[in-house]
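Below is how a single chain appears once it has passed through the pipeline. First comes the sequence as given, then the structure the pipeline wrote out for it. We keep one example in the README because the format questions we get most often are answered faster by looking than by reading.
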Amino acid sequence: MKTIQKIVTACVFAAATLAAPLAMAHAKLTASNPTPGAVLETAPAEISLTFNEKVEQAFSTVTLTYTDGKVVETEKAKVDAANPAIVRLQTKGLTTGTYTVKWAVAGHDGHRRTGTFSFSVK
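Resulting structure:
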């Protein structure tokens, strides 16, 4: 009976050790331009989001909203072909005010991650 218990314990430990890196393998935002909380003199022509791993185009979205909560019309965000860890959103005609960037992406593991941050244009 003790031998079976040791084998089961060893198997559980091995499974937990092997699964740990997979649990941590979600796409995480590592950088953005503009940065969260930035106050810009001029409106950006593009918002770029950099993640710690490649993200899937089919499951990646970026929405930009104005101070009043109204969604800013933009083209669909695109994953950079040269570096699939970067998502780019082209922006046109942004005016003075505060904007909120809401993003949602899925990495190669298929888990969807979301986040928001704001920046302002003087």
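The beta strands are 29-33, 39-40, 46-51, 61-65, 78-79, 86-90, 97-106, 112-121.

See the next section for the split statistics.
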